[in-house]
Design goal:
The chain is α+β, with helices and mostly antiparallel strands. It contains 17 helices and 15 strands. InterPro entries: MM3350-like_sf (IPR024047), Plasmid_pRiA4b_Orf3-like (IPR012912).
Length: 456
């Protein structure tokens, strides 16, 4: 992949303020930042390209694919032409989003950062730019960078990003960081001499590039391993070398922004619902919980000592951990012709939502169920039946107002693990000022419900 410079845009950033430590600048780093090679230290082109991506989304009606909900392929070459990092493996009109790793990454950042939203009910879904996009554009370049980094570090499910159901990159990443930060390593890790670690990183693929695009390290591509793998979109690295910028950033990321505390999909995988990034883990002892409370609450705050206050002062607001009062209206669709609209209060539980769905479709309530909040069947990010002992949050004690739902959010309700009845649940409305219903009720019915046991 090629990454041409963007010197005009780089001049807009106040580089003299970068990486200050108590008013004393690292001369070697600030000298590098003053040169055109600074794109390897502070990747301003990454921000520029992201803005170009978002501008394209704002100016076009982007339909999403049925299977994965990704950008339809007709738009991908046009977006690719706007990028400074071109997709090397997208060779035809039929190449899908995963063949454009740079665009694929931006898509997940924009979606998880709530800058774009998949809208539409039963017709084909398309992307809509949210009001947060304008708020993003009002940030400084440094603040934009940290919002993008925060979204990657906190909000994105790395397994989903790498098109995997389960992924243990969270476990291996700290090991890689520790080796890179070891003074004896020279900030370089040669994976050809780290056979066991290289094997554990076998499925990292574009994760190598994601971190590189943030300017934290540089990888040397292992073309021999790529050819041996015989997969078009695979990526392997011979070596990983920290940039000067990465040498400053990685200690803060690993010590003050530990993935175990800060990555929300990882915490949800272990059964938490709507956790607060950086908050104490449920199984922590009192001393660890006290230490966790002392850390800066906003993601960017841990990095403020490295930057001028005028460059890094704020980010976009987060809403995790807040109980959202109100009346919730859901559309629960079997397909575009058969759906039910149900109404519940914030204080009703997800088990109550299950019960009203079962009643609306006239099903017997004699099977297990799960709500997969990321819309992916058998994802670990789920709220499950109280009788399900396989994991996930307990639906009977999880109130709707505590889940952190947003209007137009979609998730999957799966009933009966044998027959696997699948329903798309859409948050139609959250009326925070309305009188909340005492009991859940069915508001609308469209289409004849299916026979629950057609084979009997």
């Amino acid at each position: 992949m090629q990454t041409p410079g963007n010197t005009n845009r780089m001049e807009q950033l106040s580089f003299d303020s970068l990486l200050e430590e108590s008013g004393n600048q690292d001369t070697a780093i600030t000298d590098e930042i003053s040169t055109k090679t600074n794109r390897k230290t502070f990747p301003i082109h990454f921000i520029t390209d992201f803005e170009r991506f978002m501008d394209y989304i704002a100016q076009h009606k982007i339909e999403l694919t049925n299977k994965n909900g990704y950008i339809s392929r007709k738009h991908l070459p046009l977006i690719n032409d706007r990028m400074s990092v071109k997709a090397a493996n997208a060779t035809s009109y039929y190449s899908q989003q995963q063949s454009y790793p740079y665009i694929h990454f931006f898509f997940h950042i924009a979606l998880n950062g709530k800058l774009i939203l998949a809208t539409g009910k039963f017709e084909k879904l398309h992307l809509t730019v949210t009001e947060r996009w304008q708020a993003f554009m009002n940030l400084t370049d440094t603040e934009k960078y940290f919002f993008l980094l925060e979204t990657f570090w906190v909000d994105i499910n790395w397994a989903r990003l790498l098109n995997m159901k389960h992924n243990r990159t969270y476990d291996i990443f700290p090991v890689v960081a520790e080796k890179l930060l070891d003074k004896t390593s020279g900030s370089c890790l040669d994976l050809r001499h780290e056979t066991l670690l290289a094997n554990l990183m076998y499925n990292w693929n574009d994760l190598f590039l994601y971190v590189e695009w943030f300017g934290l390290w540089i990888t040397e591509k292992d073309q021999e391993a790529i050819d041996h793998d015989q997969k078009k979109d695979s990526y392997f690295a011979k070596t990983i070398t920290l940039t000067d910028f990465g040498k400053k950033m990685f200690p803060v990321l690993m010590n003050d922004r530990n993935l175990l505390y800060w990555n929300l999909p990882l915490r949800q995988e272990y059964g938490e619902v709507n956790p607060i990034p950086g908050s104490a883990l449920p199984e922590m002892d009192d001393s660890d919980k006290k230490q966790a409370k002392q850390l800066p609450k906003a993601f960017h705050q841990a990095f403020v000592p490295l930057f001028s206050k005028s460059d890094l002062y704020k980010s976009l607001p987060r809403m995790e951990g807040q109980f959202k009062e109100g009346t919730y209206t859901f559309t629960v669709a079997l397909n575009g012709r058969t759906w039910r609209k149900v109404v519940l209060s914030a204080n009703h539980t997800m088990d109550d939502l299950h019960n009203i769905i079962i009643r609306a479709y006239a099903f017997d309530d004699d099977h297990l169920y799960s709500f997969f909040m990321d819309g992916i069947k058998w994802s670990p990010v789920c709220i499950a039946s109280p009788d399900d002992i396989s994991g996930g949050a307990n639906a009977a004690v999880t109130t709707i107002g505590s889940v952190g739902l947003n209007k137009e959010q979609r998730f999957l309700y799966l009933y009966d693990y044998g027959d696997e009845w699948q329903f798309t649940v859409i948050v139609d409305d959250i009326h925070e000022g309305a009188d909340e219903p005492v009991n859940p009720y069915i508001q609308d019915v469209v289409g004849s419900g299916p026979d629950q046991y057609p084979y009997y």
